[in-house]
Amino acid sequence: MVGGAGPVPGHRPPPPPGRPVPGRRPAPEPLRHLPDPPQVPPEPPATASPQQIMLPSRRVLAARMLRAAWLPALILLILWYLLLTCYVMGTSPTFWTLGLLSILFEPGYFAMLARAVGFSPSTLGLAYLLLPVLGTLVSLALLPVSVHRVATMDPRAHLTEEDFQRCLARRAAAPLMIPPLAAIVLVTVLALTPLSPHWQSLSAGVLAALSAGLLWCLLAWLAMRGRLSATQLLEVPSPAAQLGIWDRSTRTVPAAERAQRLAVLVTQDRRHLPPVPARLEPGPAELLVHAARSLRWIAGAALYWVAPVALPLSWIIFTVQDLVVVIHRLTSTQTFTVARAEQPWQVFAFGVPLLLVLVGLVALTPHLAMLLAAGTRDAVTDERTYPTWEERAARNPWEVRVVNLTGVLVSLQALLITAVYTVLLLAAGAMSTVGWVWAAVDVLLLVPLLGLGASWAMRRRLRDVLYGPAGRYVRRRTPFLLVAPEGGIAPLRHVAPAGPARHASHADPYRAADAEAISQGILPDFGAAADEESPREDPHRIPDTETGLHRHDPPR
User: Fold this and answer.
1) Which of 1, 32, 66, 302 reaches 20 to 30 Å from 191, CA-CA?
2) 501: how many CB neighbours lie within 10 A of its CB?
3) pLDDT digit string (tens) for 52-96?
4) How many CB atoms lie within 10 A of CB 133?
5) Residue 512, H or E segment
6) Where is the composition biased (Basic and acidic residues) (predicted)?
């Protein structure tokens, strides 16, 4: 039809503006200005009933840890042998390498080689025979500390079962790494004093040995965490296995019971972002607490983002520097004597204070990023904590802005410190070829990785910086309150069970009837209202009806 004036048969005209479309859910209203989440009352371990204890006693936990400790003991023994080798080679890696090659043709060179670097053959053999074994025994002597750290854990204080099991493995393995790290710190400090018999200074060989030693410690730490897991110590399935069992076993289970089972594995984080304005204006003491938390999580991220790259590169660079110095000495003097690639004193005199300045700046960076992101607060459509970063980023531009600014600012700060360090070394005449290599490595690799690690840390831990641990505001619906009691389970026989109902008004962010909706991605509104100025009966009230929940559904 020409002109298009008549209606098209079978076509329904669109509804007038402002009228809801039949069969279509209305667009969600912005869910902002949530109240500050209330803290959960603390639960002393003495209030736990026998049904809420994972293991009957710490003796049982210690026995399981001893049975599982054979592989960590083997890892520690290998680690101590590697650390001892790094210490010996640190006197001059190139000299030792060339000397050991010559031993293949003349075995008598070994005694001369050992004496040349300050070792006697008998002392060196005795050290390799005893020191790794003694070091391993000292590490295993700290197993009671691991038992205590694991036994006092509260599974309900962790948002997910996966987070609880990861934390358990870290707590179990950390004490065993104290002796190796203490040995590295001790020999490093002694190298700066006349008391060290072999490491006379922090030369290139010593720095290469320290880099290799720290790298071996990092690898040993990761390996031991895999062995001292909740699967081994508590005999519980891994989170992935539990989720698989849950999927297979709940096909015929009613929705309410299925939701309750899922709530055992994961609960909803009540720490919303952005927080109430008062939390963004901390006093001096609280600001220091925020800075300490920020530094903790960013430093932890650096272990995954920066250390695996920095430590091998450090070993390579300092080993090559030692090689160049030794070869130059051999070709110029025609004598096979120990030559050490000493570092100028300005390298440490300027580097250590600047490193401390960088640490302080990094600790304050997340708070600065929050202040700079204030303009995006009104653009937030949902302050609640969604399980994935993609879901949070689609609804919370403020959080995205803080995360990105933290990474950018940390990178700029590290770049500025690198530039100042380079200028100071140039002004002091201490800038060598190795210094220029390190400047290039910092600018091209380490600085970007540090910024990425800081952003990654804030994606996962920004709520920890502002609020503290999640367990202060919510309790997961796991039936357990404690891993193992100190005096065994007998003294707890007459304690009244705490029960899940004890925390219904404080710990649970949703009732059991709402858990199914949350498992489908629909979160409770935690007491928010469309009109923040309108009076509310209870600022922390959870909607009682499905309509109340769906009113603030996330966009589909």
Assistant:
1) 302
2) 9
3) 777 777 888 888 889 888 999 999 999 999 999 999 888 878 777
4) 13
5) helix 512-519
6) 26-35, 536-556
The pTM of the whole model exceeds 0.85: no
Residue of 227 and 117 predicted with greater confidence: 227
Domain boundaries, the chain: 54-247, 270-471
Token pair listed for 33: 């200005």
- Distance between CA 556 and CA 552 in Å, rounded? 12
Query: For residues 388 and 22, what is the distance between their CA atoms, to the nearest angstrom?
Result: 32
3-state secondary structure 180-193: HHHHHHHHHHHHCC
**Planar angle of CA 328, 192, 122, nearest 5 degrees:** 75
465 near 294, Cβ under 8 Å?
Answer: yes
CB 444 within 8 A of CB 11: no
| Residue for token pair 């329904």 | 12
Contact 316, 83 (CB under 8 A): no
The one-letter amino acid at 275: P
pLDDT in tens, 123-168: 888 888 999 999 999 999 999 999 999 888 888 888 888 888 899 9
Q: Cα–chain-centroid distance for residue 484?
A: 25
| 75's tokens | 């890892």
Which phi and psi (to 5°) does residue 282 adopt? -75, 155
Q: What is the DSSP letter of 443?
A: I
- Cα gap 231→225, rounded to integer Å: 11
pLDDT in tens, 480-535: 777 777 765 555 444 444 444 343 333 344 344 444 555 555 566 555 543 343 33
Residues above pLDDT 70, as percent of the chain: 72
Structure tokens at 166: 């990861």
Cα–Cα distance for residue pair 404/457, rounded to 1 Å: 11
The answer to whether 471 and 120 have CB atoms below 8 angstroms apart is no
* Residue 153 · residue 483 · CB < 8 Å: yes
297 closest CA partner among 460, 406, 173, 168 = 460
Mean pLDDT (whole number) for 282-301:
93
d(CA 139, CA 345): 35
472: Cβ contacts below 8 Å, ≥ 6 apart: 39, 40
**3-class SS at 131?**
helix
- Write the DSSP assignment of 493-543 as a string of letters: TTSPP--GGGGTTTT-SS-HHHHHHHHTT----TT--SSTTS--S-TTPPP
What per-residue confidence (pLDDT) applies to 130? 92
CA nearest neighbour of 164 among 45, 264, 47 = 264
Could you tell me which of 55, 27, 38 has the C-alpha nearest to residue 484? 55
Spatial contact of 91 and 118, defined as CB atoms under 8 Å apart: yes
C-alpha distances out from residue 97 to 33, 80, 327, 338, Å: 66, 20, 12, 12
Separation in Å, CA 197 to CA 281, 336, 489 = 53, 21, 53
Whose CA is closest to 339, among 75, 536, 95, 148?
95
